Amino acid sequence: MEAMIYQGPGRRSWDEVPDPVITDPADAVVQVDAVTICGTDLHILKGDVPEVRPGRVLGHEAVGTVVAAGPAVTTLRPGDRVLVSCISACGRCRYCRTGMFGQCLGGGGWVLGHLIDGTQAEYVRIPFADTSAYRLPDSVADRAALLLADILPTAFEVGVRNGGVRPGDSVLIVGAGPIGLAAVTTARLLTPAHIVVVDPAGPRREAAKTMGADVAVGTPEDAEKVVAELTGGLGADVTIEAVGVPETFELCARLVRPGGRVANVGVHGTPATLHLEHLWMRDVTITTGLVDTCSTPDLLKMVAAGRLDTSGFVTHEFALSDMEAAYRTFADPASTGALKIAAFRDGFRDEPAA
């Protein structure tokens, strides 16, 4: 088969690799019908994730069709259409038994495209298939389901839920890339009073407003002014960091109110300064996290019921065999306007059942 291979920092290639096979009774092999690229893949290519070794197949988000299932798999059968989660879960360890699948001790967690070969390929092996893939309703199109593999549960769990967003809150989201926009979309489920987004890119600010932000500004200075006006100078109840650079984390910590919550979602490749000289007496809660995907079944129900709209996220579509072009487009959003891309198996038509 062909797949997107990490060749070391700054290098990737679309090459022939062996087809995946079942190596454990709990495995399934899935034909990839649709796949996307994550900002974390770009971090890997920059060398920010040293655990990823050259030769690894990239990717941890996909929708596909089961073509083989190990003898221990009980809930999936060949022919089933499934969402491949970015997180694998053994289902038995201490963390999995409490829903913290991202911290799985039994060989799961974030492994696809990280510690084992991932989804940007014609086929992918899914470990712990019963607890790491989700059968899809016929009514949910692949491009809609793709958003449930990572960014929507990540934004909801690590940003909105960890941040404790409540009805009536003022929420500041720093970064209007895919994760920041997913935070806007899922924060609205909790009916905050105000959602303020800060991002230097005009098209992303417009996307944020389309998806439900009340105000979108381009600079930290404008964000500080708007938050002060909306909160009577207190600061935001919740600030969500969705970029992964020191300046954006420090902005979130600066604009949160006393007693407020800072939820870091961004993937950081360099240290950020924690200004405890200002924070120590302000009762601020700071959370970090890797998505667990425990919210995926509920988010999937909302998409199927038309209660959660994912239609604005996918801006560019490609054939799977054209993943090189997909990467170039996704990696240059300032020029391309890309939010999320969807790459479909050659000849595949993404048409949900009526």
Automatic annotation (TrEMBL):
Do the record's keywords include RNA-binding?
no
* A GO molecular function held by the record: oxidoreductase activity
Task: List the InterPro entries hit by this protein, alphabetically.
Answer: ADH-like_C (IPR013149), ADH-like_N (IPR013154), ADH_Zn_CS (IPR002328), ER (IPR020843), GroES-like_sf (IPR011032), NAD(P)-bd_dom_sf (IPR036291)
Q: Does this entry carry the keyword Heme?
A: no
Among Gene3D superfamilies, the record links this protein to: Medium-chain alcohol dehydrogenases, catalytic domain, NAD(P)-binding Rossmann-like Domain
Coiled-coil stretches noted in the UniProt entry, renumbered to this chain: none
* A Pfam family of this chain: ADH_N
Residues of the Enoyl reductase (ER) domain: 10-343
Which coenzymes or cofactors are required? Zn(2+)
Source organism superkingdom: Bacteria
Record's keyword terms, sorted: Metal-binding, Oxidoreductase, Zinc
Among SUPFAM superfamilies, the record links this protein to: GroES-like, NAD(P)-binding Rossmann-fold domains
Q: Which family does it belong to?
A: Belongs to the zinc-containing alcohol dehydrogenase family.
Name of the protein this chain belongs to: Alcohol dehydrogenase catalytic domain-containing protein
The organism of origin for this protein: Herbidospora solisilvae
